[in-house]
Amino acid sequence: VTSLKGRHFLTLAEYSREELLFMIRTAMQFKQRYLAGERIIPLLVGRHLAMIFEKPSTRTRISFETAMKELGGDAIYLSASELQLARGETIEDTARVLSRYVDVIMARVYEHYKIEKLAQYSRVPVINGLSDLHHPAQALSDVLTIMEKKGGDITRLKIVFVGDGGDNVLHSLMLAIGILGGKIIIASPKGYEPHPSVVKLFNEHASPNGGSYEIERDPFKAVENADVVYTDVWVSMGQEKEKEKRIKDLEPYRVTVELMNHAKPDAIFMHCLPAHRGEEVVNEVIDGKWSVVWDQAENRKHAQKAILALLTP
Ligand code: CP
Ligand code: NVA
């Protein structure tokens, strides 16, 4: 793998299988060094990360901020509502100006085109910290967790996502698994399929590597013999108006003890968090023997370090 410095991180589809594996290996090394007590690894001394948020965040904000600081750099939290963006300054102009002050930008936005535009007009790398369509930083971290829990070859695993097939976290997870040559089963109702733009990316970047996905309407059939059962909220940020309909449509896809008992006995349960307990997953599962959700959250920081260290010029 040649240097990744200066590259954007918008959907994962910008990266080859080898590059993704390189990022994951780098994250693993950062984690080992962190657990061995090595707090500061001064690779980004004097560098600044700007973090723009249009939506709330706990994990993404804090893992990126601590990661940047532990790499010797600094991070600035910017609420979109407090930038001149809120008064009509364009994304293009914001990108042009910000990228003359900082070395790397991370942004969490509603419409995905906004992060693309930011990247197009920025002189420095732009990292997607979640858009309505993608959450690539989450997916990189999740692959790391799956490899830690289930071994390095994810192509041998049965990975099942249960719930909203049009979810941003699923979109990035399916691209990550697919680019690495693996397969994902999506258990979702009619009308909740992956977004056409994600299917297109999948066909172009994952299928040639042997990656595949399959939609199965019956959640019990889908999770049969599963190694990994993943879910996310039914009502994502920005979908509050559709709340009632979504909950009604997705009700049969709740991850319950009974559902987990159809997976392999040593299956793991994953969730990007925050969870709406009692909705997409019951307490007995998220707090039960299957759950790896806290390790998942922990891994975000190590994965962010890899992204920041490898991409920041
Ligand atoms: N999983 C995740 O991105 O969480 P936050 O919304 O708290 O950042
Ligand atoms: N799908 C969720 C993920 C939150 C991390 C949302 O977009 O709200």
Textual characterization of the structure:
The strands form two sheets. This protein has a five-stranded parallel β-sheet. It has a four-stranded parallel β-sheet with strand order 2-1-3-4, sandwiched between helices. Helices cover 41% and strands 13% of the residues. The chain has helices spanning 17-35, 59-70, 91-101, 112-121, 136-150, 168-179, 196-205, 219-223, 243-250, 257-260, 283-286, 293-311, and strands spanning 48-53, 74-79, 104-108, 126-128, 159-162, 183-187, 212-216, 228-231, 268-271. It has 313 residues and is an alpha/beta fold. Phosphoric acid mono(formamide)ester is lined by residues 57-60, 130, 138, 272-274. Residues 7-148 form the Aspartate/ornithine carbamoyltransferase carbamoyl-P binding domain. Its EC number is 2.1.3.3. Keywords: Cytoplasm, Transferase.
Number of helices: 12
How many DSSP-defined strands?
Answer: 9
The secondary structure category is: alpha/beta
Please list the strands of the largest sheet in the order they lie side by side.
Answer: 7-6-5-8-9
Largest sheet: 5 strands, parallel
The poorly predicted ranges are none
Let me know the average pLDDT. 98
Q: Nearest-angstrom radius of gyration?
A: 19 Å
What best-fitting shape do the alpha-carbon axes yield? globular
> Order of SSEs, N→C?
HEHEHEHEHEHEHEHEHHEHH
Helix content: 40-55%
Report the oligomer. single chain
**Terminal Cα span:** 16 Å
